[in-house]
Amino acid sequence: MTRSRLPALDLFRLGAAVLVVAIHTSPLESFSPDLDFWLTRVAARVAVPFFLMVSGFFLAKKDQEGIGRFLKKTLLIYLAAVIFYLPMNLYAGGFSPTDWLRGILWEGTLYHLWYFPALIWGVLFTRLLLHLGRRRALPIAAILYLIGLGGDSYYGIVSAFPVIRQFYDLIFSVTEYTRNGIFLAPLFLLLSAANIRLQPPLAAAGFCLTLSAMSAEAFWLHGAGVQRHDSMYLLLPLCMVCLFSLLVGCNSGRCRTARDISLLVYLLHPGCIVAVRGIARLTGTWPILVENSLGHFTAVLTLSAGISGLLYLFRPLPADPKSRSWREIDPEALRYNARVLRQAAGPDCELMAVVKADAYGHGAKTVASLLQKDGVHSFAVACLEEGIALRRAGIRGCILVLGWTDPRQAARLARWRLTQTVADAAHGHALSKTGYNVRVHLAVDTGMHRLGLPADDLAAILEMYRLPGIRIEGIFSHLCVSDSLVADDIDYTKRQAESFRELIKKLKDRGISPGKTHLMASYGLLNCDEPSFDLARAGIALYGVYSDDAPVYHRLELHPVLSLYARVASVRVLSPGESAGYGRAFIAERPTRIAVAAIGYADGLPRCLGVRNGRVLVHGVACPIVGRICMDQLLIDVTDVEGVLPGDTVTLIGRDGSEVIRAETVAEQCGTITNELLSRLGVRLPVVVRSSSSSAAFLKSLFS
Ligand SMILES: *Cc1c(COP(=O)(O)O)cnc(C)c1O
Predict the structure, then answer these.
(1) DSSP 8-state assignment for residue 435
(2) What are phi and psi of 442, to 5 degrees?
(3) Relative to the CA of 483, which ligand 1 atom is closest?
(4) DSSP-derived 3-state class of residue 651
(5) Whose CA is closest to atom 14 on ligand 1?
(6) DSSP class of residue 191?
(7) Is the pTM of this model over 0.85?
(8) pLDDT tens readout for residues 215-258
């Protein structure tokens, strides 16, 4: 027997959304109240349990973080819906502050919104139950469902007993119904996660049978007039197991469109009910569009579906950052390196994260935000624009501009609370005259002869401290051979440090508080035994790489933060003698399979890498880059790798399986240092943050 393969679960969401619209419009009311009762209070009651089960089904396959993302998304949708329906709430009036709180926490602020808090509480509560093990969680959820049943369809029967009545009074003082995240949701979430699979004929027969029995149950309760509400029936879980099993049995894949449209219909239909009434009144079609229940249902459904379809058509479709080539940032590695460098700097020294040049090609906003969350308060950039960009991205604390800024830009320095480096005496005087009272750090030249006032010109330095219109909050110098272990260079570094230290002492002796003092960059921390002053300006080491593979005095174990990936665009076969790429620089010597990767020198990859023995990883195998690197593409010899296809991932820097390509190796092949290689990685490469388990830490602590 061939079974039809459909994204059945997602498609059924559409049907379930139509049933929910039916619940709120009673389509058959005008024709047969009994039939309408059956449709909207019995059959349509499969809709919400179905939504819960389909959520449980997909959530069961997710990790903690995936569940965290799901909850966050659900919460955002819920809050957006609460705001959307605020005008309707205000128009209806009569909501006290406690009603609002209860509404938001449990029942939703409009009649259909109860589903969202029920789902969120249900998922959280179910995860707690699962700590008792699956075998215990399911019976407990079933008992909770039975308790819920007593407060719902069976209330009239069970409330005959005073004790039980008091018990439910207690529940109803907190929440108006028992159809919520505690009594209703856990059972359905667990039932779908349990993945019960019945043979399709059995499931189909079971569904018909249980639905019929549930109908009988409902009519009996309805007739006896014992229902307080009609969301829950004794036979509903059994009926759902059959229905869900049937759907899972013919499910294949997912259908985003059905998902999004069903959600929109669910969210929007109460608004459409109001709109249809308005339209009916204005156009004199009240008898057709409102009084006739089927006309009403049809109008509401058409309007909801129409608006949902339009919204779906114009939904935002942002680019997928991993569609061509991208930089991936490992936040754990970044945090780890920051910790290691803090330790190396010592207890009295604070880390100043150098995030100039787009954080050495790692994405300054991303890196600075991650570090800020990790407790870093000081950042350094190269220029004014970089500083402003960080402030706009919400970075607080000190942002030091390490380079020269035209004093005519002083207003911007002040407005964005940036700290400017005083590049020399003339710069200091010019900044002082602007009248903006700019915060500055004094640069002192101890031997690099780039920026700074000469360390031995005490008079000029003292004059800076007397200038009005600038606030000197720090003083620093920069080492120029701290990356070298040659004896002369070590001496030079020592003299630089000595002269900086002496200067600070002289200032203090004259009663001047020099502010934050700092000298070391990455290689200062790695190679010098000097004390590290108040701040350490770490750049390259923060990113987990060394400038090159030269030896260092304190080799810290650092973790590379950046990986560089590109997609395979096309694969082709060359016969011996055929050439590939510009200048025919590659000639095949054997039958050769060439993969084209969608990354080139315009993305910041050095063009010389092609002719300098550059390699990339494809399916975990190192493959040579061949021919000349183009502006937007490069060629890889993948003859020795089976089954390379367009869309596959090529690793240019980073790990694939057991193989690693280090930034240090690539830099060396191109005759440069990692600082240059990484900082040139272009703006065309989106920055993607690798999902880390620790960003879901709060959820983890809740559940595990
Ligand atoms: C770039 C820079 C740094 C950071 O140097 P790394 O070697 O990458 O740690 C520190 N200080 C100044 C003045 C810089 O220009």
Answers:
(1) S
(2) -80, 130
(3) 7
(4) strand
(5) 402
(6) H
(7) no
(8) 999 999 999 999 999 999 999 999 999 999 999 998 988 899 99
